[in-house]
Each structure stands twice: as structure tokens, then as C-alpha cells.
Amino acid sequence: MKITTIRHGETDWNVAKRLQGSVDIELNQVGLDQAHKLAKRLSGEPCDIIYSSDLLRAKKTAEIINTCHNVPLITSQSLRESGFGEFEGQSIADPKVYAAFGKFMEEHVHVLFNRVHEYIDEILKNDHENIFIVSHYGAIVAILCRLMNVPPEERLIFTIGNTAIHTLERTDNGEFRMFVENDTSHLD
Description:
Blueprint: E1 2-7, H1 12-15, H2 29-42, E2 49-53, H3 56-66, E3 73-76, H4 95-124, E4 130-135, H5 137-148, E5 165-170, E6 176-183
Parallel strand pairs: 1-4, 2-3, 2-4
Antiparallel strand pairs: 1-5, 5-6
């Protein structure tokens, strides 16, 4: 089994360093262009099914990717970014917001991880060999931690840019190994 995680394309809030969370923000023109470059890059990769967050920025990225694959596309709230409550829309560039948001996430990361891990465990039960998962920074970190057996406390080891690809393959002993990490070469 091979799993490729893909972060959505750029939004205006990414550019402004505003926390999006569960706010349904659309891709901007750069994000749409990124998604098309990503689709071209992935067009030669085998894919049996695409799972995506149901939020517009991820769903649109997944739909663009799927123009090259024409496989089932399943959207789910389980792959959404964490809800950031009062922090949604605020600028992470503000040091006060950054500090308070960090404390907020430490308290709420287990909720995100539990939700995403339950969904990933269901995906792993399916017979698909080549899976694309289009989602958000936090949810992808949770997926990578689950597949790589990384504890949530060490989650910050992962870097995930807009339209970044991480590809993992299940080995004969049932563990996953990563062989593509934070690849955004399609944007060059």
C-alpha cells in the first residue's frame, strides 16, 4: 500500500498568515495554479482513490488532481483542519496571537489527532493500493504521525508547504516508510 498526502494550494489567508482552521476559504489564483502543477506532476502516479477534506481549499485541490485520474473522490469532515475557535482569522505573525495559539493547540491537538487517526485506520482497512489524501497542515501532520509511529509531542518535525507531497509505503513487516517528504518541486 502506498499513501500520498497532499496539502491544499495557497489561499489569501495563507499569504496573510491568518489562521484558517475550519473556516471555508477558497484557493486564490496562485493556489489554483499550484494545484494544476501538482496534478500534472501526479498524473503519472498510480491512484485508486482520493480522500479529501470537505473544506473548499482541499476539495478543489483534490478535484483538480482528479482530472488526471478520474477515480472515486471521497470527502470527509474527518480530514478537516482543527477548529481554531477565537483564533480563526487572526494573524499568526502577531507575537501575542502566536504565543496564545501555541498554548491553545497544545490543549487541543489530541482532539485533532484522535479524529484523524480514527479515519486513517478506516482507510487502512480498505483494499486500495495507491491512495491520495488531500488535506490541511494539522491533519496531514496527524496522518504522518500515525503512519510513522511518531508521538504527537514530536509532531513539529514535519514540514508541510502548500501542495507539498509526502509519500509513504507499507513495508513487508506492516510498517510505513517515507520516501518522499515535503516535495514541492512541481512549483519550480
